[in-house]
Design goal:
- Helices cover 25% and strands 29% of the residues.
- It has 245 residues and is an alpha+beta fold.
- The longest helix has 21 residues.
- It is globular.
- A hairpin with a 2-residue loop joins strand 7 and strand 8.
- The strands form three sheets. It has a five-stranded antiparallel β-sheet, with helices on one face.
Length: 245
Amino acid sequence: TPYALLPADALYRHALERIEACPALSLQQGVSVEAINEHGSAVRVRTSTGELHARSVVDTRPPANLPDTSTTGFWQVFTGLEIHCLDHGFETTTARLMDFQACDEPPCFVYLLPKDEHHLLVEWTAFQPHKDNPDCRAQLENWLAQEGIKGYRVMRSESSMLPMIPISGERHFGRVIKAGVGAGWMRAATGYHFASCQRGSMLLAQQILAASASNQWHLTPPNVRSRWLEWMDRVFLRALQRHPD
């Protein structure tokens, strides 16, 4: 096939191996952050297992104030399946992206990626003003039946939601800065932010190395998205709200 897949679990394992191999890094999982406060030349991080102290903090937690129902955007809810089906019949060199379906409400579409003659990645996605019912498996199974895909075996499934809501992000210079969705790194029109996260993480890593050398631990939120893209996202969301079909 003309494309290659990067399994998320392989990327995750690689990241964990790199962290474990670096003596300057430590990873604590299963710990929730309750509060982050700057005090003079240090930052106090209160967690479920105790308090930590740092010279600077990059806060990647998602925004805590996202509404359950939005009047300025949508929630993108989706369910994806990796299935095994003998001779599924789809062209293995062609991916189907954002194939909009005849849905009354909300707008919905399908992604279809044949891995080979017997394996498919397929996803049902819907744009809706509220984040209820993120499981779209019933709609996806109905679509597969309409396409004549029967007797398949589900090898992996995933359901989640993304806020397609304009987030300007916090751009405060200091010892505590935001990164990720809370910093506006995600495209509100698509939910895509893999590339911006890689770019922003690299820029932050460069700042941290420079701060360690100079002992000046005030960081600057990196610019990872242009104002032009932000404007396009807002135009797209307004158009979708006016003409959902």
